[in-house]
Every structure is written in C-alpha cells, then in structure tokens.
Amino acid sequence: MNVLVKRLNLWEAMGMSISVICPTVTAAFNVTLVVQAAGAAAPLAFAIGTVAMLLVAVSFLFFTQKVAHAGAAYAYITHTFGKRAGFVAGWSLLLTYVGFATGQAALVGSFTAAALKGFSIDIGPAWIAVGACAIVLAWWLAFRDMRLAGRLMLALEVAAVTGILVLCVRILSEVRPGLAATAASFRPSPDFGGWSGLGFGMVFCILSFGGFEGAATLGEETRDPKRAIPMALFFSVIGSGVFFVFVAYCELVGFGPAGGTAALGKSAAPLNDLALRYASPGLAIALDAAAALSCFSGLLGPLSAAARVAFALGRGGLAPALSVVHRVHGTPVTAVALATLLIGVPFVLWAPLAGAGNYYSYTATIGTLLLILVYVSVGLAATLESWRVRRPMWATVCVLGALMLSWVLYRNIYPIPEFPNNLWPYVAVAWVMSAWIVMKWRPAVIRAPLVDTA
After folding, report:
1. Among the residues of 145-222, which ranges form H helices?
2. I need a surface site. Which of 17, 57, 212, 307 has the fewest CB within 10 A?
C-alpha cells in the first residue's frame, strides 16, 4: 500500500506549517541572531523578510492550486524542469527538514533545563536525554496519527505565542517608547554595516519563516487540498511575519537604548531576561516551559515533513520500501522511521559537543541555505509556468521572490562569515552534489514517472 489517506482539514494542515516555522523559537532565540547581524534594525530585517517570503509564497500558491503531492517542491520543480532537477530539490528539502528537526530537539532539552532551573533543579547534561525522549515521542505521534499531531502542534504554538504577547504588552506599557526609538528599528544600522548587515541577518529571518511550505507536504492527506493548502501557507506567513516584527521591536525596547542592542545580541534567553525584568519569575518559568513545548512542536512538524519528502522520493524510484503506508494509521511508516533516524543520529553524536544553542544554529543554518536554493528554484519554475499560461503578473511576483532570496544567499557567502559559519555553505554544496551521486547509483529516480495526485 503506497497511497496516503485523506483525513486532514485546514487547521491540521496549518498546524504543520506553523510548527515548522515555530514562531516561539524566533522570539526566544532567532531574534538575538538577527540582532547580532543587523543591530537595532532587526525589526526592519523581519519586515523585509516577510515581504520576501510572501513573494516566495506566491510561487507555492501557484503550484498548490494545481498539484497535491507529498514531495511538495520536489513535485513542482520536476513538473517544470524534469526529474533530475526535481530530485536535487527533494534531496535538498529532505536535509532541510532533518536539520530543522534535530536542532529543535536540542532546544527542547535546553528550554526544559531552563524551566527546571526556576525550581532550583539543575539537570546538567541530562538535557540530551530530554531531547532524545522528545525525538522518540515525536516519532510515535508522526507514525500513529497525523490528525492528532496537527492539532497538538497548532495548540502548543498558540499557547506559547499567547504567553509571549502578554510579556510584550507588559514591556510596552512600562517603557512607552517614543518615535525616535521606533524609527531606529526601521532603518539600517550604520554600526552593523547598514544594508550589508541586514543582508547577513536576513538568513536568520528566512530561517524563522523556513518551512512555511510544510503544509504542502500534506497535499495528499488533506481534504480539498487545492483550497486548504494555499490558505494554510498564506495565513502562516502573514501571521508569523506580523508576530516576528512586533516581538523583535518589543525585545529591543525592553533591553533599552543604552547598550540594549549589545545585551540582547548576547542574551542566551531574552524572553527569560525580559520576564524577570518586567514581570515575575513565575512568568519566566512559564515562558521557558512554553518554549520547550513549542520546540517539541517544531521537532514534530519537520520530522513529519521530512517523512513525506522521503516517502515521495522513495515512490519516485529511490527505494520502494520508503513508499509503504501503514494499513491502519495511513502514515508512511518506513519513511517516518528513516526521518527519525536521520534526526536522532547527529543529535546524539554532535549536540553534546556543540551545546544546544550552537547545535541549533549550525543545523538550522545548513537547512536554511538549502531551503533558499529550493525556494529560488520553485520561484523560477512558477515564473516559467506563469508565462506559459499567459499570467505575466504572477510571473513578475514569482521572479521577484527568487531575486530577493538570491541576494540573501549572496550576502551569506560574501563577505565570508567567521568560523564556523563559513563552513556551512560548503556542507550545503556537498549535499547538493551528493544528489548526483545518488542519481548515478539509483538511476530509477530519473526514470520513474512522477505520481500525479492532482
């Protein structure tokens, strides 16, 4: 049996996209990465990132209205540029989701440890065990019931985002920032290289949105996918973008103008620091616990998406065993197991050496660089298809999205980042090149027909 069961609705599909985006992690971690690169202009970087991702989303909307496929971008690019290009895209997307998921597993352990410290409980290196248990639980949910998983992911994110917004309101009501502070957040900072700093910071903005297309991997399992999937993608990007800009601004305001930017960039737990300053230790503990639960959602979503991509690649000639669907649960059981293995092995071997924060940053950056390549390719494919059906406005918007992300990619290769961030582009290139080795080893991936589920 290699046919996925249609049983998901709009909200469960949206739960997938929101969980892969994982807005809470951006508020709790990614904002500091953007501040390190762009300074006080972090809200501007997120605003530009929102526009860029909306343009990219148009390319996905174009295809999701025509194609419902577990491989998502793999199917879209194959449809336009052929099986070779499509396989490279699917192969890249697989590592993207694996990188996101394994990094989130580390943050589950880290935030759990932080929450327990609020009760004077120090678990030390046992955060690794917490992350490993989270991976096992995520495997069970992804294997057992995607409906339950989708609802759980959405509920966890809504709860965590609500807590963060409560803190933001407390900050604004106490600080009451003026026009000067607001204006500084929406112009390039000369202290951080101006537009160059914005360009480098944009990779972390794209990382924050990365995976918005996750709902598209559920195209074969969603009822009325040509309506539900585009809506899930669009509202996920819009809602997340507004949240990112607002939270980045509030965090900058909360740390204050006098050295606040530097302090925020160095903070290992900005939400915790702000909760202690503007609210109470109880809220700080609650936010750490909410962040841990949200990161679990951020693990479950990419794991499920990676499994769907592996399922599509397996069905497309990589390995027939990956296309096996459980007769009772209707999930790609072998692909889920493979995705779990790919997530768990590097976590156990690398995360203890790098530390939770660095491990997440490294693996998510590798995944984001590959994802940018996939997004650019989808944008070019949508541009070409739009011209073929005489829709010039769609073609213009799609090519603009591809151009904006090409600029972001360039800014993360030149100037050359400091070690070890200068290594990750080489890792991404090596993974892309490995796709050609796989095609030589398994020529069926370029001969097998693409399954049409439209």
Report:
1. 146-175, 179-184, 195-209
2. 57
- Please say if the pLDDT value at position 198 is more than 80: no
Q: Which residues contact 311 (CB under 8 A, 6 or more apart)?
A: 4, 70, 322, 323, 325, 332, 335
Q: How far apart are CA 4 and CA 122, in angstroms?
A: 44
- Quote the mean pLDDT of the chain: 88
H helical segments located in 355-423: 356-388, 392-411
Q: Which residue has the higher pLDDT, 435 or 183?
A: 435
pLDDT of the residue at 215: 87
* Burial tier of 370 (Cβ tally within 10 Å: 0-12, 13-18, 19+): buried
- Output the pLDDT for position 2: 66
From residue 119, give the alpha-carbon distance in Å to each of 113, 116, 122, 161, 204: 10, 5, 9, 23, 32
pLDDT of residue 349: 97
Torsion of the alpha carbons at 433, 333, 149 and 94, rounded to the nearest 10: 0
Under the banding of pLDDT at 50, 70 and 90, the label for residue 248 is: very high
Phi-psi region at 450: left, alpha or beta (left = phi > 0; alpha = psi -120 to 50):
beta
Question: What are the boundaries of each domain within the chain?
Answer: 10-446
Q: How much is the pTM?
A: 0.89
* 27 φψ region: left (φ > 0), alpha (ψ -120 to 50), beta (else): alpha
CA dist 277 → 111, 160, 292 (Å) = 19, 19, 21
Tallying the residues shown for the chain, one arrives at 454
Question: 64-78, 112-126, 196-210: lowest mean pLDDT where?
Answer: 196-210
Let me know if 387 is exposed, middle or buried by CB neighbors in 10 A (0-12, 13-18, 19+).
middle
pLDDT in tens, 160-188: 899 999 999 999 999 887 776 677 777 77
Q: What is the 3-state secondary structure (H, E, C) of 37-76?
A: HHHHHHHHHHHHHHHHHHHHHHHHHHHHCCCCCCCCHHHH
Across 416-433, average pLDDT? 89
The CATH label, of 1.20.1740.10, 1.10.510.10, 3.40.50.720, 3.40.1080.20, for the domain at 10-446 is 1.20.1740.10
User: Residue 445, CB half-sphere, CA atoms under 13 Å: how many?
Assistant: 25
Burial code (b: 16+ CB inside 10 Å, e: under 16) for 157-190 equals: beebbebbeebbebbbeebebeeebeebbeebbe
**What's the average model confidence in pLDDT over 250-259?**
80
Is pLDDT above 70 for 123? Answer: yes
Q: State the virtual CA torsion across 412, 212, 219, 8 in degrees, nearest 10.
A: 150
